[in-house]
């Protein structure tokens, strides 16, 4: 009789522990999906920016004959950023690209004909909006990444979190936060 | 960090409960005034059955109005304002700014974007549920604001959606409306009752019930609408401050909204299409009655100068910054403890557009863009005359009849 009671008690304890760990595991999965989803939101914007830049360079070429170096810088930064893998690598590469684009628009101020070009204006609007979207979605991504990392590091989740990688932070400095030349996006 | 403003919701729910009580009491008072008084010779001479019947009637009226607004509300509001839905191609900047603020607010779903043809600068949001929300701006607003300022205004509107102000203010507004209707019925009944010398109803001494209760009910019926309206307006003003605070968090650039409010308050043009129902959803009070001009107590919106001052003296973009700035300007507090506790510090960002004003040429260009966006959303066709080069914007109803260019009379390829 006592034996049965002990056995049942043990079973209950084991069941509770198993259910608890299943919950923790599912929480980790949810966290990972959240991070992936938040990253894909940023990734869409980054790809969009990479797609816009060749058009921008093509449009500007005809007007800015003496600025081959500036244009080259933008193209290079874009190619570097496209090669980056994952948030941690993309951060610095995208920051460099942001600075190159900001620098380019600073130089473009000196070319009134270019500034009157309708195509150029709409590309400028698209690029500055994309930059904004990247910086606004960065917040959501980093929040999700932080939540995930907290989840997998606390006890007892850390016992089973071995299969879950630490989420990388996406650090990118806004072009406007730097001492960059003042640009007119109007 | 973008938690909803919960504790302020609690406070708002409290106000809403107060209004609900007011509605029930007005219904009960109306029951006393309108229904036949208890029989003097009956055992139970209290007013309880009349009160219960009146209260149920009041609630029923409110429920019917609320259901109607629930199924029809948004479409009716947008149509009343003359709003036209636009696509990205119509006005890229406005569309982009709405997308940016949807991301920043983590709203999850892009609201529909509408343009209203009106020279008065204003904007509003509709949508009880975040799924089918809309943001509408006037052409006047689009033509005079810089990108950062427009972003501030759109952020304020999206904050109204995110904070569920649309649902809250519609529910509250319908309660006020029901109370006004009930009180009006009571007043009319009393007026005609007096004129007719109490012909229809039995005279005072033949009925039972306490006369003091009857007099109290009359006083209540007269006072209730004012009370309800004051509660409603206080609620509306508070939600405006909260939407400003959220807008600062979303944009991280409170001067943008501040400058936009400055420009909006600087214009004398009033909104052509005024309605007190939609008033709390606009960025600045569209209905300016003499009463609301005389005192802040009677306005849907807080004084615009105070809003600007609070936004401009923020030292960061977080809720805590807004609270401390608000406190230093008004010596009162506005944001709930829970929100402040959960709020993370958010730094200010620099201006997107170098914070420069618009010169005459840019102003003209933006005005044209805004007007074109509305026209193309309204189905106007742009045709350029092959003979004299004039660009014609032809309304859909004129498409068939326009045969020749009005400037040079050359035939048009319609």
Q: How is the topology of this model organized?
A:
The complex is a heterodimer of chains A (186) and B (414).
Chain A: H1 2-61, H2 68-83, H3 86-108, H4 112-116, H5 118-153, H6 157-160
Helix pairs in contact in A: 1-2, 1-5, 2-3
Chain B: H1 6-34, H2 48-81, E1 83-85, H3 92-105, E2 112-116, E3 123-126, E4 134-138, H4 139-144, H5 147-162, H6 165-195, H7 211-251, H8 254-266, H9 290-294, H10 304-312, H11 319-330, H12 337-342, H13 360-377, E5 381-384, E6 391-394
Parallel strand pairs in B: 2-4
Antiparallel strand pairs in B: 1-2, 3-4, 5-6
Helix pairs in contact in B: 1-2, 1-6, 1-7, 2-6, 3-5, 5-7, 5-8, 6-7, 8-10, 10-11
Q: Output the helix-strand order of chain B.
A: HHEHEEEHHHHHHHHHHEE
Helix/strand class of chain A:
mainly alpha
- Average pLDDT taken over every residue of chain A: 85
What structural category do the secondary elements of chain B indicate? alpha+beta
Q: SSE string of chain A, helix = H, strand = E?
A: HHHHHH
Report the span from N to C terminus of chain B.
55 Å
Per DSSP, the total helix count of chain A is 6
Number of strands of chain A: 0
Cα gyration radius of chain A (Å)? 25 Å
Helix content of chain B: 55-70%
Main beta sheet of chain B: 4 strands, mixed
Helical percentage of chain A: over 70%
What proportion of the residues of chain A form beta strands (DSSP E)?
A: under 5%
Distance between the termini of chain A: 84 Å
Regions with little confidence, pLDDT below 50 for 5+ residues of chain B: 197-206
Backbone shape of chain B:
globular
By oligomeric state, this entry counts as: heterodimer
Largest interface: A-B, 22 and 22 residues
Low-confidence stretches of chain A: 175-183
């Amino acid at each position: 009789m006592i034996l049965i009671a002990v056995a049942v008690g043990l079973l209950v304890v084991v069941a509770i522990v198993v259910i608890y760990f299943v919950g923790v595991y599912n929480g980790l999965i949810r966290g990972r999906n959240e991070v992936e989803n938040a990253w894909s939101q940023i990734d869409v914007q980054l790809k969009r920016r990479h797609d816009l830049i060749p058009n921008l360079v093509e449009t500007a070429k005809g007007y800015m004959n003496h600025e081959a170096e500036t244009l080259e810088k933008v193209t290079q930064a874009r190619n570097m950023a496209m090669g980056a893998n994952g948030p941690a690598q993309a951060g610095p590469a995208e920051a460099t690209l942001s600075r190159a684009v900001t620098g380019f628009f600073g130089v473009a101020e000196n070319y009134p004909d270019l500034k009157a070009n309708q195509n150029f204006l709409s590309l400028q609007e698209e690029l500055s909006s994309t930059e904004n979207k990247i910086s606004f979605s960065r917040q959501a991504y980093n929040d999700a990444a932080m939540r995930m990392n907290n989840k997998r590091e606390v006890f007892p989740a850390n016992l089973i979190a071995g299969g879950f990688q630490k989420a990388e932070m996406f650090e990118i400095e806004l072009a406007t936060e730097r001492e960059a030349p003042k640009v007119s996006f109007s | 960090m973008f938690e909803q403003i919960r504790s302020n919701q609690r406070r708002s729910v409290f106000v809403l409960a107060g209004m609900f009580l007011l509605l029930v009491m007005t219904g009960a008072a109306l029951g006393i005034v309108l229904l036949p008084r208890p029989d003097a010779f009956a055992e139970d001479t209290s007013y309880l059955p009349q009160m219960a019947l009146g209260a149920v009637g009041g609630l029923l009226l409110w429920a019917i109005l609320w259901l109607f607004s629930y199924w029809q509300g948004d479409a009716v509001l947008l149509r009343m304002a003359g709003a036209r839905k636009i696509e990205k191609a119509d006005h890229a900047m406005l569309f982009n700014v709405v997308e940016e603020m949807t991301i920043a607010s983590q709203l999850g779903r892009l609201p529909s974007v509408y343009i209203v043809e009106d020279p008065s600068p204003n904007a509003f949001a509709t949508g009880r549920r975040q799924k089918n929300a809309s943001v509408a701006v006037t052409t006047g607003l689009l033509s005079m604001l810089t990108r950062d300022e427009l972003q501030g205004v759109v952020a304020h509107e999206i904050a109204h959606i995110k904070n569920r102000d649309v649902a809250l203010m519609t529910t509250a507004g319908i309660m006020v409306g029901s109370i006004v209707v009930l009180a009006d019925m009571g007043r009319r009944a009393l007026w005609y009752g007096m004129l007719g010398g109490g012909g229809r109803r039995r005279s005072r001494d033949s009925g039972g019930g306490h006369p003091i209760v009857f007099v109290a009910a009359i006083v209540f019926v007269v006072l209730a609408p004012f009370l309800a309206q004051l509660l409603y307006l206080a609620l509306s003003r508070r939600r405006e401050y909260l939407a400003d605070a959220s807008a600062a968090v979303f944009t991280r650039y409170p001067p943008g909204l501040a400058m936009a409010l400055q420009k909006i308050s600087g214009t004398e043009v009033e909104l052509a299409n005024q309605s007190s129902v939609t008033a709390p959803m606009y960025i600045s009070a569209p209905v300016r009655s003499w009463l609301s001009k005389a005192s802040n107590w009677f306005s849907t919106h807080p004084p615009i100068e105070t809003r600007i001052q609070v936004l401009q003296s923020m030292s960061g973009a977080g809720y805590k910054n807004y609270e401390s700035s608000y406190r230093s300007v008004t010596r009162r507090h506005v944001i709930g403890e829970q929100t402040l506790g959960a709020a993370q510090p958010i730094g200010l960002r620099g201006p997107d557009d170098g914070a420069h004003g618009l010169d005459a040429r840019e102003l003209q260009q933006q005005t044209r863009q805004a007007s074109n966006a509305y026209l193309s959303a309204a189905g106007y066709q742009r045709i350029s005359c092959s003979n004299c080069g004039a660009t014609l914007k032809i309304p859909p109803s004129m498409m068939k009849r326009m045969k020749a260019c009005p400037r040079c009379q050359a035939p048009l390829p319609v």
